[in-house]
Write a structure and sequence with these properties.
Strand 6, helix 10 and strand 7 form a beta-alpha-beta unit. The chain has about 425 residues and is an alpha/beta fold. It folds into three domains: about 160 residues, Glutamyl-tRNA reductase, N-terminal domain (Beta Polymerase, domain 2); about 130 residues, NAD(P)-binding Rossmann-like Domain (Rossmann fold, 3-Layer(aba) Sandwich); about 90 residues, no CATH class. Helix 5 packs across helix 7 and helix 6 runs antiparallel to helix 7. The two termini are about 30 Å apart. Helices cover about 55% and strands about 15% of the residues. A six-stranded parallel beta sheet has the order 7-6-5-8-10-12, with helices on one face. Strands 2-3-1-4 form a four-stranded antiparallel beta sheet, with helices on both faces. GO terms for molecular function: glutamyl-tRNA reductase activity; NADP binding. Pathway: Porphyrin-containing compound metabolism; protoporphyrin-IX biosynthesis; 5-aminolevulinate from L-glutamyl-tRNA(Glu): step 1/2. This is Glutamyl-tRNA reductase.
């Protein structure tokens, strides 16, 4: 069994490419996961699709075959050639895949280092795949350790001491271009976590905030929680020409603000499009200042410089957590093998005991004593060997040892991990 992660992120792909690779709703995500798992060598998969990344994390029996299947599937859906996808993607397998997963969960791979949204997005992606039967024990183990690693990073470093997000960075950008936002009318489109954070930051800065959404009662609920006002989505065509400030982060697959509804204004407008695919597509409007996710990089770089020390410490934690994860996986392989060795030895002792009794070498009335004695002999003989097997599970040569023992006891390696329940998998689900 192998782990494989194919990653398209803000580090290797343009916004245009990420838009084409994005999956905006549950229906599309389910279709993608179904096609992923239809690959001959892929047995479990998780799809992570956010404004800054699209990643496939899977377990597979053959890395080359699984990689080929994933690229063919993504190319067919997105219209981006396989050559371009291969040129852009970061491909991680086995230990590097786990290391990358832990980095993503700990927000070390985020555009905004230390942002807290990615952990929730990762949990949502895992739950969706798990609840719909697209992943099970193999990925659940990795995800559980990823969340544990993220918690260690948060507790041991200061990278999340001042929580930041793309939304808070966008509001910071607004403040850098506008001297004062107090009293200015600001429209927030959408009701997701990013919209909520944006609305709260704008309100705390004194802006007059309105929230709108296709589903009005959701806008009313968020506005009530934040202390904002509600704007009917049907009035969006008026609002874009009346409001000075606009933030949008919807899950629409098509732009919702286009040339058709934009009119000339005698004041500057500041629009922030944090959606992928983008919500705004226009070709006119001289006094419109539009910022998309990738335009926030300057502030992000400043954020990174503030958190460099914490990030270095976090990388060390992630490295150690990766090693500990594979040591733990090795113990899952070792214990079943030790159990099977004992079972085979006891069965051989039982057969031999019955044989000598049947031949009359030992009286029948001593049968129980013979069984106990033979088992005690075997336990004494196997104890030292099993102790060494357990101790070596934390060493680099563990893989060689487990392969050799699997060969000797004629056990299929693919059977072993799934035979033993991961006690953490249910905890992840129950801890939602």
């Amino acid at each position: 069994m192998h782990y494989l992660n194919i990653s398209f992120s803000h580090k290797n792909s343009t916004l245009d490419v990420r838009e084409k690779l994005s999956y905006k709703d549950d229906y599309a995500t389910k279709g993608c996961l179904s096609k992923l798992n239809s690959g001959e060598s892929i047995n479990e998969s998780i799809l992570i699709s956010t404004c800054n990344r699209m990643e496939v994390f899977c377990s597979c029996s053959d890395i080359a075959s699984a990689t080929k299947h994933i690229f063919e599937m993504l190319a067919a859906r997105s219209g981006v050639s396989i050559d371009e996808l291969e040129g852009r993607a970061d491909i991680f397998d086995d230990s590097s895949a786990i290391h990358h997963l832990f980095s993503v969960a700990s927000s070390l791979d985020s555009m905004v280092i230390g942002e807290t949204q990615i952990a929730g997005q990762l949990k949502d992606a895992f739950r969706f795949s798990y609840d719909n039967g697209f992943c099970s024990q193999k990925l659940a183990r990795a995800m559980h350790h990823a969340f544990k690693c993220a918690a260690k990073v948060r507790n041991a470093t200061d990278i999340s001491s001042k929580p930041v997000s793309i939304a808070s960075v966008a509001v910071s950008k607004l403040k850098s271009v506008l001297d004062n936002v107090e009293g200015k009318k600001a429209l927030v489109i959408g009701v997701g976590e990013m919209s909520e954070i944006t609305a709260k930051h704008l309100l705390s800065s004194g802006a007059d905030v309105y929230i709108t959404n296709r589903t009005k009662h959701k806008a009313e609920k968020l506005a009530s929680e934040c202390g904002a006002k509600v704007l009917d989505m049907q009035d969006l065509h008026k609002a874009v020409n009346e409001f000075e400030i606009l933030f949008t982060a919807t899950s629409s697959s098509e732009p919702i603000i286009t040339d058709e509804i934009i009119k000339p204004c005698d004041f500057d407008r500041y629009w922030f499009d944090m959606a992928v695919p983008r919500d705004i597509n226009y070709h006119k409007g001289d006094r419109i200042n539009l910022y998309v996710v990738d335009d926030l990089k300057n502030i992000v770089d400043q954020n990174m410089s503030f958190r460099e020390d914490g990030a270095r410490k976090a990388h060390g934690i992630i490295g150690r957590s990766t090693v500990e994860f594979f040591e733990w996986l090795n113990t899952l392989n070792i214990e079943p093998m030790i159990k099977e060795i004992y079972e085979k030895a006891f069965e051989a002792a039982r057969i031999e005991s019955q044989r000598v009794i049947k031949k009359g070498f030992i009286p029948k009335e001593y049968e129980d004593q013979i069984h106990k004695m033979s088992q005690q002999v075997l336990k004494r003989f196997l104890h030292q060997m099993s102790s060494k097997m357990r101790s070596v599970s934390e060493e680099s040569k563990a893989d060689m040892l487990t392969s050799a023992v699997q060969f000797l006891i004629e056990k299929d390696q693919r059977d072993i991990p799934d035979k033993y329940k991961c006690e953490h998998a249910l905890n992840i689900i129950e801890g939602r």
